[in-house]
Amino acid sequence: MLKAVYEERGPVPEDVIHAVETETPAPGPGQVLVEVVAAPINPSDVLTLTGDYGMLPPLPAQGGNEGVGRVAALGEGAEGVSEGDIVLLPVGSGTWASHMVTEPRRLIPLPAGADPQQLSMITVNPPTASLLLSEFVDLQPGDWVIQNGANSGVGGYLVQLAAQRGIRTVNVVRRESAAEAVKAAGGDVVLVDGDHLAERVAEATGGAEIRLAIDAIGGEATDHLADCLTEEGTLVNYGMMSGEPCMVSPKSIVFRDVRVRGFWLAKWFRNADRDRQKALFGELTALIAQGKLKARIHATYDVGDIKQAVAEANAGGREGKVLVCPAHGG
Amino acid sequence: MLKAVYEERGPVPEDVIHAVETETPAPGPGQVLVEVVAAPINPSDVLTLTGDYGMLPPLPAQGGNEGVGRVAALGEGAEGVSEGDIVLLPVGSGTWASHMVTEPRRLIPLPAGADPQQLSMITVNPPTASLLLSEFVDLQPGDWVIQNGANSGVGGYLVQLAAQRGIRTVNVVRRESAAEAVKAAGGDVVLVDGDHLAERVAEATGGAEIRLAIDAIGGEATDHLADCLTEEGTLVNYGMMSGEPCMVSPKSIVFRDVRVRGFWLAKWFRNADRDRQKALFGELTALIAQGKLKARIHATYDVGDIKQAVAEANAGGREGKVLVCPAHGG
Questions:
Q1: Which residues of chain B does A251 touch, with a Cβ-Cβ cutoff of 8 Å?
Q2: What's the pLDDT tens digit per position in B226-256?
Q3: pTM for the whole thing?
Q4: B77: burial class by Cβ within 10 Å (0-12, 13-18, 19+)?
Q5: For this structure, is A53 an active site residue?
Q6: Is the C-alpha dihedral spanning A122, A124, A125, A126 positive or negative?
Q7: Chain A residue set in contact with B, beta carbons under 8 Å
Q8: Cβ–Cβ contacts within 10 Å for residue A273, how many?
Q9: Domains parsed from chain B with CATH numbers
Q10: Which residues on neighbouring strands pair with residue A39, listed in sequence order?
């Protein structure tokens, strides 16, 4: 089997991650062997490799936090799953690998007919998009929300979930070439970031009151979004694609009482009770299985090509997610 | 009489403000003539001259937003005040002048024995300090708060008000020479901003949990304060002494759920009911009259020296407020 591991963290993520070949383990009593089908490379995975994430595993570590697998073999007395079942892999289990051995109770069965690549991305980005829309401002159908990084994974899910809830979106992208895909995904307004953004937003929305802004980028892009909010509006940051801290001017936070918050999915997982988590993932699984919620896929790579895969995931200008899809020889 | 006026706004505040001499008006029926005794130059006044404040008067305009005067003459039928009374001037009335004519109902009588220079600063900085301590986090005696710009006007009042409420303060200053005065005013901990601030704060406070940070400066100084807050702590910005927008990194707002807010006294005045305003100013007037709440005074200038006064107020390195104290020839 192949797995992608790292012994140290460093500024260039593809320099620290590498694939190693080991013997495929046999499942022990009560265990199962799972073949990994697909596992995404998320921005948080890249930040974990560079050491910039809020929670870092002890070293050495295996990469990958989410993914989908197929049950390949059951150990003696293993129960609860059958060979061939499509399952969600345990969160944070090191999913950039061709195989893993685990206990059946840590696997969540998934609908058999659904696209496993789409399901492999369910744990991180879709709940982030859903919770950004629900946890900060009480939005009603017809309300507007503004986001930047609109062509990111979270951004794409957010456009689709907002549309399903009757919420209208202003989507800010960093380059004109990204605009078309966001419009195609259902974004109501798509604008390129830059000068006079607030005026352009007001023009495009007919002067709509915007009470929620969602920032994936940081730096000056944060202030541009804050400018677009109504008095007492809330700006929520959840990413730092610019690599810079959020900037917010007194014009917004002092004179217009804009509030700045952050969102971290890991904290939500820590605090939300089991029933809320089940309800959220039940809803998202159904939407993905029905094809009503999806992400674009930029490229897929075998575990052996993990350096190239991570470099690609860390580069700008992508249109969609990079997935690790291990080759299983058939 | 002399008054300080400006016809345009511009980046160098002392270039736009200037004194003009006009005939001292006689009070009309029901009016009074007031001699201005003292009127401070606040950072918000400087930002009004440069055009960077959140609320700008139409041009041409007269400078000065608060101050204390002495009733000099009553017009026919004027009631409610007597010649010689010490009074608070109307907020925003253009107090950088030797005289003003107004209606008695717009004047608030002040205790006769108190220091009029200290009372002249009551409307802007003391309520800001008081409300920063009360409006965002429910602080209890023994709790800690951290502020930067600790040797500013608001900073000095905040140290004194916190001490009176049993709240302990970590005070951050930008230069070592400012530390002594903050300690003398009752600051529990005084540190110079810079590297590893959070570690130094933890050491000085015995690892105390700090739930409120108060930022007068912006730029990287904001992020340094945010670093010192406990998880879910609140940072409130009310000034931009650095001239830069606030910077906050995802390390604080995403991974530790720090919340960023702004405070603007003008908005509080708009929303707080009359009784709350009276209660707050009653408390502050008593403290100032009793000498329990005071600000250092860096220098006083006649209205004719307004350019020098404003330049001095806008310069760094001051120890105290600059006041306009018109010469009244005895």
A1: 54
A2: 999 999 999 999 998 898 999 999 999 999 9
A3: 0.91
A4: exposed
A5: yes
A6: positive
A7: 53-55, 218, 223, 237-240, 245-264, 267
A8: 8
A9: 2-121+295-324 (3.90.180.10), 125-266 (3.40.50.720)
A10: A324
